[in-house]
Amino acid sequence: SRRPTTGTTGPTMATDILGEAGLHFDELDKLRVLDPEVTQQTAELKEECKDSVDKTGQFQKIVGGLTELLTNLQKKPKKNERMKATGAQNLLISIAKQREGQWQQLHALIAEKKMQLERYWFNDLCSCLLTLLILIPDPLH
């Protein structure tokens, strides 16, 4: 190792002087400007930031998917409402045709009853006249 040492007792005066000057040895005994602990914390922070950015991206994808889903769900009720409105319109048309058919049947029935009434009236008139003819003696006879 190139790091100055004094055996097993710890750093030497040169290491202390380098430390005070802001120079440190890393785990590979390379001379660094940053303290190894600060370098480690920086690397951890960098990794945490990367994870956070990845999670934010995943969250944005999820939110985008939910937004698209909600947009599609909003469109479907409109289609369902249109289908219901069309069904109601068709039902009204059907009811109107049914009523028109009933109206025509009623008019035909009224016409039939009028004719029947006219026949009854004519028959009654004929009966009355016949009765009158029978009851009133003929002045010529």
UniProtKB/TrEMBL annotation:
It is found in: Cell projection, Cilium. It holds the Pfam family IFT20. Keywords: Cell projection, Coiled coil. GO terms for cellular component: centrosome; ciliary basal body; ciliary base; cytoplasm; intraciliary transport particle; neuron projection; non-motile cilium. GO terms for biological process: cilium assembly; protein localization to cilium. Its main location: other. This is Intraflagellar transport 20. It comes from Ursus americanus (American black bear).
